[in-house]
Amino acid sequence: MPKTHDYGLSRGGKTHGGGNRNNNNRNYGYNNSSNGKRGYGGSKKNAGNGKAHAAPTGTPTAPYNFVKLNDVVVSAQFSEKLNAGEEQQVYKEFLTGEKAKYSGYFEIQVENITPFFINNGKDKFFSDGVNYLIPGSSLRGAIKNYFKILTNGTMRTGDDGDVTDKYLYYRTFASPFKPLSEAYKKEMTAKDPERNIDVPSSQPGFLVRQGKNYFICPATFKRIKDEREATRTVSTIEWNNTTVDVFTGTMNRKKHYYQFTGAQWSVRLEIPEKILLSYYADKNGNKTNPEFRLFDEFGNINKNLWKAGDSKAKILEGAARYDFVVPCFYVADDNIVRHFGSGPLYRIPYKKSIGEHIPAKVNSAAVDFTAAMFGNKDSWGSRVFFENLYLKDDKKESFENKDRAIPLLGANPTSFQNYLETQNNKAMHWNSDSNIRGYKLYWHKTCDWRKSKTDKNQNANVTKEIAPLKPGHIFLGRIRFEKLSAVELGALAQVLSLGDDGKSAYKLGMGKSIGLGSVHLKAEMHLQNDAYYTSLFSEAGFDSGMEKADKQQYINLFQTYMQKMLTSASFKLYKERMEELAMIMDEGHLKETEWAKKTAYMNINEPNDKDLANYRIPLPCIKDVVKKP
Q1: Considering the entire predicted model, what is its pTM?
Q2: How far apart, in whole angstroms, are the C-alpha atoms of residue 190 and residue 15?
Q3: What is the Cα–Cα distance from 268 to 49, expressed in whole angstroms?
Q4: Which of 70, 175, 367, 548 is 20 to 30 A from 340 (CA-CA)?
């Protein structure tokens, strides 16, 4: 597939204001592969020959998987009394009500069973300057995620949400996954009836800024053949007297550039804020030539890209009102820009955002157990407090030798075959009605975290030198709690007891995908007794007012509450989800010799792995991965 360098402009749509979608007088140089000629980005070898590529064999692998999404949210015990504007009052009444509330702490012991690394921001193990430690915030984040799963919590979008909501982008003609290539073709091309070929349907224009608002002013352009384009390795924009020449950089067999003229500076098509924000968030579209990004890494306009107020360029006469001007291609409906890009064919957003794939019953404003106990915006604070956990033995030999780690990859939701539920065992993309799979967790596995010496990629942005803690070391600390109900205490005790079965371990810290961060967690509960406020000393000395308590009775109360709050169908799903959670937390996989291969990132340099990705073969669910021989 030929590659269009995205020099800061990306996204697409239909013509504006009743313009001619077919653009019959424009020769873009793209042919429909159905007529035997080379099509949109098809390779020379396979284009137009009618031969189907053999489907890949096997199944995809990944170091992560998903615990199913809950169908409903189990609300906090006082949620049915909540009314708009009265949240704080209802919350106070709950805390001071007749039913008993419990305060105390869990004595926490964390032991790493694989190499372990908590980053201090400078690629060193976290410390306070004297002691190595696990910050309370790191433990809080990890436990909160497990807690959401255990309590059938909300999965919200928004500033304080669990999921960053955004529109993802794609660009493909040649994908063997037909639903995607057909969606792009439908959105970005139209039939030229005179030549009976598909041509790009995007329109030329100039993206402009006036104050804090952005618009596109329509224009016209010509496609000009020029041998210079074949030698250019980067995208450039050349401003002339009455024209603007746009060179989109090196492409396979491409020897032309685009010349913009006829700017209509008085016609302004609105660009919605969400389109600009989504464009900035689309980091994939800015990788080839980052110097041509519309925004810099701080979210500011990239001033190196723009050309405005140049009195020598007559084409800019009439553009003095604008702060910045840049040529682009775009698609608009009813004078509203849907997306824009650098060339006639560019990356476009899916029509649905990530958040639109979370069911409304789950992506809701309901006050769940997490909001009730861990804090709810400005309404009330947390009643659970995570203290730092300090390493018992911080000798130098406790750490492995410093080395460069395997590149740590971030979430890649563009791989929708992994992140969205399947339909009839087929992958669904982000324009579909499928829901997200659920909560992402990492498998426990044993593998060498060190980067291969034969891998010449030394990009410091994706590989870091670290010295993880060797397995078998212990951190100690506390998790305090105040005024929890018996059921809430049971929920907290449950999530801190998932490893009490002797089979399950948690994931914590950096490098979860490469085998780091598998830990045992033990929690011993202590509750305030009647002497907490009345006695300073006891026969044994200072009276802390705390005594060890049995967790199980409170866990039983929480489990009974969950069953009471869920319908039989929802409770059946809940039990299935708990089974999946136990499977992905199972530390027994560390002893399986082939497990690391079954849970590795796929290697796109391997032909079959590449085909599995290109054909969008769905990632197996947790149970299928475990059952796979």
Answers
A1: 0.84
A2: 11
A3: 44
A4: 175
CA distance 543 to 626: 50
pLDDT tens figures, 444-503: 999 889 887 666 555 555 578 899 999 999 999 999 999 999 999 999 999 999 999 999
* Distance in angstroms (rounded) separating the CA atoms of residues 403 and 123: 11
Q: Which of 424, 527, 200 minimizes the C-alpha distance to 331? A: 200
Token pair for 279: 């464009």
Q: Which residue has the tokens 């979860």?
A: 512
Q: Which tokens in the block code for residue 350?
A: 């899916």
Summarised one tens digit per residue, pLDDT across range 8-21 is: 233 333 323 333 33
- What is the distance of C-alpha 613 from the center of its chain? 18
Strands 465-466 and 197-200: unpaired
Q: And the tokens for 578?
A: 């708990």
Burial of 282 (0-12, 13-18, 19+ CB in 10 A): buried
All residues at 6 or more sequence positions from 158 whose CB lies less than 8 Å from its CB, including other chains = 165
CB 365 within 8 A of CB 375: no
The Cα 68–Cα 149 span in angstroms is 9
Residue 530: Cβ within 10 Å count:
9
Q: What is the rounded distance in angstroms from the CA atom of residue 238 to the CA atom of residue 249?
A: 13
> Given CA atoms 598, 602, 607, 610 in this order, what sign does their dihedral have?
positive
Q: β-strand 102-112 against 474-484: which pairing, if any?
A: antiparallel
Burial category of 572 from C-beta neighbours within 10 Å (exposed 0-12, middle 13-18, buried 19 and up): exposed
Computed from CA positions of residues 146, 151, 152, 156, in that sequence, does the dihedral angle turn out positive or negative?
negative
